[in-house]
Write a structure and sequence with these properties.
Elements (H helix, E strand, L loop, with lengths): L3 E2 L6 E3 L4 E4 L4 E4 L5 E7 L1 E6 L11 E5 L4 E4 L5 E6 L4 E7 L10 H43 L8 H4 L3
Antiparallel strand pairs: 1-4, 2-3, 3-10, 4-9, 5-8, 5-10, 6-7, 6-9
């Protein structure tokens, strides 16, 4: 596992059958050359990735993985894994011959995802403007009923100061 960068203080050590141990409170950074999968065998980890902009697949950012859960890592992605809790973590690092997840093209990352985000923002803006319009209409209806009923009319000086 030459592509694994281990801390100099020896927080990561290989165990039997290809498993790795990570001491409580320690971290390790990985940047694989091949598509790989991090599989947690026991314990919990906090994994942070700088995956390509593919937010629709929910790959960007932080992940908390427990025993039996896994996270696919694309070639060149930076992955930081931290043992979460007071117990050591054991995990397996599986290298794949082919990528389990297709990396988005440059056009998808730079145009497709921002385009989808813009469409979602416009949809949210339309909903907000619709709610604002209904609120303004409701207030106008209340105000007009208040004024028509005479409760909002301006009193003359004789009506306002009774003797």
């Amino acid at each position: 596992m030459s592509h694994l960068q281990t801390p100099s203080h020896g927080a990561v050590s290989p165990a039997c059958s290809g498993l790795w141990s990570l001491a409580a409170g320690r971290t390790v950074q990985m940047r694989p050359r091949e598509a790989s999968t991090l599989k947690v065998v026991c314990g919990r980890v906090w994994a942070t990735t700088d995956a390509p902009l593919d937010r629709t697949a929910r790959r960007l950012g932080d992940h908390v993985l427990g025993a039996g859960e896994s996270l696919a890592v694309l070639p060149g992605e930076r992955l930081v894994v931290e043992a979460w809790g007071d117990t050591p973590v054991r995990f397996d690092w599986v290298v794949h011959a082919e990528a389990p997840v297709q990396a988005p093209s440059r056009w998808q990352a730079e145009v497709g995802v921002p385009g989808r985000e813009l469409a979602h923002a416009l949809q949210c803006t339309t909903v907000a403007l619709g709610r604002l319009a209904w609120g303004v209409l409701g207030y106008a209806a209340y105000l007009s009923s208040y004024l028509v009923a005479g409760r909002g009319r301006v009193l003359s000086r004789f009506e306002s100061n009774p003797p």
